[in-house]
Amino acid sequence: MALQSILLLLVVLVIGTVQGYVAYDFLPVYRGRRYLISRNAEPFDLAKMNGRCRGSGGHLLKIDDYSEYRNLAYELSRMRDQSAIYTGITDLGIEGHFYNYNDKTPAGHLKWRRRQPDNWKGNENCVDISVWGFNDTNCGGNGRYMCEIPA
Ligand SMILES: *[C@@H]1O[C@H](CO)[C@@H](O)[C@H](O)[C@H]1NC(C)=O
After folding, report:
1. C-type lectin domain spans which residues (predicted)?
2. C-alpha R_g of the chain
3. 15 C-alpha to center of ligand 1: Å?
4. Please, what's the b/e burial string for 37-59 (b: 16 or more CB within 10 A of its CB; e: otherwise)?
5. What is the pLDDT of residue 2?
6. Ligand 1 atom closest to 124 (CA)
7. Residue 128 burial (CB count, 10 A)
8. What per-residue confidence (pLDDT) applies to 14?
9. Ligand 1 center to 37 CA (angstroms)
10. Would you state the torsion angle of the CA atoms of residues 115, 120, 123, 129, taken in this order, to the nearest 10 degrees?
11. Mean pLDDT of 66-85
């Protein structure tokens, strides 16, 4: 390969790496699942963030059952930053019908926070998770998000 081609390749690789770089915190593997939480809050976008999770071999978080939620709540309770984290659960389409964005399967067990979901101002079609449970929230807010990846 000519030196110029090699240099060009290097430049492309470096730029791609820098642009695609997202820092994650890792939770312990649970029942064959690995969980990644983005470290920095940024404007959320279901398609974009799910695409990033897919790039890591997974998808935005979905909850299969109560024990998965209990484990996550426990792990989140041990983290310093306890602000809510975006999941891949949404009711975009039919209000109140919550499903997993990645594969369109119905959302499993949702332990809602008190008086949630309330679709506040008719504008809350995404779902976040915190130690206190789930809350419906605006899909375009600023926040962290969680990926789930088969371990
Ligand atoms: C739910 O989320 C909204 C913002 O989307 C927030 O204003 C509200 O305080 C949250 N409620 C609970 C119980 O966490």
Report:
1. 30-148
2. 17
3. 38
4. bbeeeeebebeebbebbeeeebb
5. 73
6. 5
7. 25
8. 60
9. 20
10. -40
11. 95
Ligand 1, closest atom to CA 135? 1
pLDDT band with cut points at 50, 70 and 90 for residue 9: low
**Ligand 1 centroid distance, CA of 3 (Å):** 56
Identify the sign of the CA torsion 13, 14, 16, 17. positive
Cα distance between residue 118 and residue 9, in whole Å: 51
The pLDDT of 68-94, averaged and rounded, is: 96
Quick one: how many helices (H) and strands (E) in the chain?
A: 3, 9
Q: What is the mean pLDDT of residues 110-135?
A: 95
User: Which CATH superfamily, name and number, covers 27-150?
Assistant: Mannose-Binding Protein A, subunit A (3.10.100.10)
Residue closest via CA to ligand 1's atom 1 equals 135
- What distance in angstroms lies between residue 121's CA and the mean position of ligand 1's atoms? 12
Q: DSSP code of 122?
A: G
